[in-house]
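Predicting holo structure, nicotinamide-adenine-dinucleotide bound.
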Amino acid sequence: MALPAKNLVQAAATSGLRVVSVRHSSQAPKVALLGAAGGIGQPLGLLLKQDPLVAHLALYDVVNTPGVAADLSHIDSNAKVTAHTGPKELFAAVENADVIVIPAGVPRKPGMTRDDLFNTNAGIVRDLAAVIAKASPKALIAIITNPVNSTVPIASEVLKKAGVYDPKRVFGVTTLDVVRSQAFVSELKGLDASKTVVPVVGGHAGITIIPLLSQTKPATKFTDDEIAKLTPRIQDAGTEVVNAKAGAGSATLSMALAGARFANALVRGIKGEKNVQCAYVASDAVKGVEYFSTPVELGPNGVEKILGVGKVSAYEQKLIDASVAELNKNIAKGVAFVKGN
Ligand SMILES: NC(=O)c1ccc[n+]([C@@H]2O[C@H](COP(=O)([O-])OP(=O)(O)OC[C@H]3O[C@@H](n4cnc5c(N)ncnc54)[C@H](O)[C@@H]3O)[C@@H](O)[C@H]2O)c1
Ligand SMILES: O=C(O)C[C@H](O)C(=O)O
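Done. Tokens:
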């Protein structure tokens, strides 16, 4: 009788056999983490290692992966951990992955915008996407690397060039904006943070981050003054952390939590448990812009349905309208980077 893939992987791990090619499936999800030794990668790996839905956690980085993998592999949870270091091992890291999470790249220092990271991170995401296109074209790809507004179009263009692009499978991770909104709103209003829901739409930089406070659940009233203070706080929350870290990087711990939450949602979707998350995806939700974050329904093929921005206040509509030009600039820059190379 054929053993399920999960048992094969575990049997090989305990017997010391090398598994050459195990076809992963929704029954034994493989998650590949690219940038696994970094500030986000390490705590995100810790959280993914504890996710009971993850059968195989493949850690990839250009440095220090073996140490991180050895450390995580001593945790008594079921996910098998493998280490892959340097470009030669990237193919194996992502091969047959169901979900690929990418925090590879440099973070901001005080005084920088996310767009200032473009010159370094655009090439990193392009090169990773080129290998994914060959090794794992059906994987769901969750991009954390900034500037997300541009790196998602970059990965998408690379996949298009390779003839394997599926817009339902490429995501910019904006979960941290949702997590922050829920933290700030629950604190301000004395709500149970674990039951507070605040969608955030648009993109992931400055004025493109648009919290829909009017859609807060449980239904919550905000004064104009509260909205005028909360909105920019959420938009500038990343900068708040960058400044507090004073040169030592940007958000890592809250991002790890957000990344693990989003990866778990993707895996649940793959396993047939439809669920809704905000994510920056190829979208027709807002006229005149090709990528936009809104709540999306996740399922076995990634994005099952784009749920759109829903009913918004006049204030929120103005922010949405104002974000379009900025997003288009960021998107065009990413597209040109791939097309011009
Ligand atoms: N989307 C978001 O909400 C969000 C939140 C926080 C940070 N970020 C972004 O995430 C990225 C990573 O942040 P960090 O704090 O973990 O940075 P970091 O410098 O601590 O870690 C980045 C890791 O990427 C690795 N790396 C570099 N080039 C690579 C390559 N070609 N392949 C694989 N790995 C490579 C590095 O070796 C390092 O281990 C940054 O671009 C940051 O701006 C995004
Ligand atoms: O602010 C940054 O540079 C990192 C990230 O995008 C964040 O929102 O924390």
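The pocket of (2S)-2-hydroxybutanedioic acid (ligand 2) is lined by residues 107-108, 114, 146, 176, 204, 238-239, 241-242, 250-251 (CB under 6 Å).
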